[in-house]
Amino acid sequence: MKRTLFSAFTIFCFISVFEVFSQAPGVSFQYAYPYKDGIPIQNYRNRRAAVLASLDEHSAVVSFAADVRNRQNDVDYEYRQSSNFWYLTGMPDPKSALLLIPGGMEIDGRQIHEILFVQPRRIESEIWTGVKMGPEEAQRILGIELCLEYNRLNEILEKVLKGRDTLWLTGLPTATVTPPFAPKPIFIETELKNKLHEIYPELYIKTSLPKLAALREIKDADELRLMRKAIAISIEGHLGAMRAAKPGMFEYEIEAEMEYGFKRGGAEDVGYPSIVGTNYNACILHYISNRKQTQAGDLILADCGAEYQNYTADITRTFPISGKYSKEQRKIYDIVLEAQNAGIAACRAGNNFGEPHKKAHAIIEKRLLELGIIKKSEQTGWYFMHGTSHYLGLDVHDAGTRGTLKAGSVITVEPGIYIPSGSPCDKKWWNIGVRIEDDILITYGEPENLSSKLPRTADEIERIMAKKTAD
Ligand SMILES: [Mn+2]
After folding, report:
1. Which of 74, 152, 230, 277 sees the fewest Cβ atoms within 10 Å?
2. What's the CA-to-centroid distance between 415 and ligand 1, angstroms?
3. Neighbours of ion ligand 1 (CB under 5 A)
4. What is the CATH number of the domain that holds 88?
5. What is the distance of C-alpha 382 from the center of its chain?
6. Is residue 36 domain-shared with residue 77, that is, in the same domain?
7. Quick one: 208 and 84 in the same domain?
8. pLDDT band at 468 (very low <50, low <70, confident <90, very high)
9. What are the C-alpha distances in Å from 297 to residues 300, 345, 432, 459?
10. How many domains does the chain have?
């Protein structure tokens, strides 16, 4: 039985919803690329060239655009492009894929090494669907050797994969479906890989491309420009939230002040759901429901970052809703700040990725012992249970190698202490949760705190809160 690749890839094509098209004759829309101050196309070219140069000529790469995710019924979530695919193409549309052919392939007498597959424009229904880029515009705007319609992917892939031994795939759907009557969960990624193995038994299939992570780890000047912008917008949001906060407000009201600043500053979205936790909610690391009402004396932990052209900030501040930290709150706050400063100082090229965490952890361990909150070093993890750093960029937890720290990469430094009620220590510490997080650029010299314009010390934060009440 002859099998084709079609069956393996039809899954990417099911997205279209039932539509009744009607549009007056003659209607026409202009395609407009959404970003004027984005990454220059030469950078995208260089990235593709770097990936191509790193691979054997008997291999091929397919990088897929992100799926459209359905929210409910015929309403989808707002689309966010896959970070890997975006990094290589600058293409914002779904149902697209990039094929890289290190050994080249002859098409119409040309040796082609890169093909972008995109949805065609459907002029007759754009009043419904919006304007897609289409292959002609894609070639002009994105500077890729060849752009074709998405429905030609399987046909071209069949030709390319003859005689190649390795296929690198990024962006396969990773959803796991566990239907109620199925004997076991279905991993879509595994199913697709199995299907490909059936068709090409000799082909070695890999689903992560280490070279891509290594490239994404080091930011170029244009990426840093966009990250600085995302961070500047985020700082305005944080300041707005601090200034607006007062006892009795709900967490979501503070979240609203925060995200108002983000949107007003030009952010397309948040880089991750905003965390605004008060009182015991500050002790829940990924608390995002933000529904509780604040009370006088509460601490607010706000971990929020704006996304600008797909680059995100990641900033946390912990401030007192009543304007002044209590004695205990300030003690814990100052320890976290001291730990953060030690972590930031360790953000130097050549240091191990884990070094900032080691330094921050040592401070927290020492101070918690001094205060009698813990009795033994091993108990530090009860109150500081997460890592201190991750890479930051297109993703909030960005791609990278986690080897030594390299100039041009951006990592967060975010130690925290969380003491939920019931903890085996003096009750006066209960329900204090503090995290301080900044975005640090690794350089050849001193680390640069990209979010340093947002006050960090307890005194500075109290001054912001005091000024607000005087207004
Ligand atoms: Mn973070």
Report:
1. 74
2. 10
3. 314, 412
4. 3.40.350.10
5. 28
6. yes
7. yes
8. low
9. 10, 32, 11, 16
10. 2
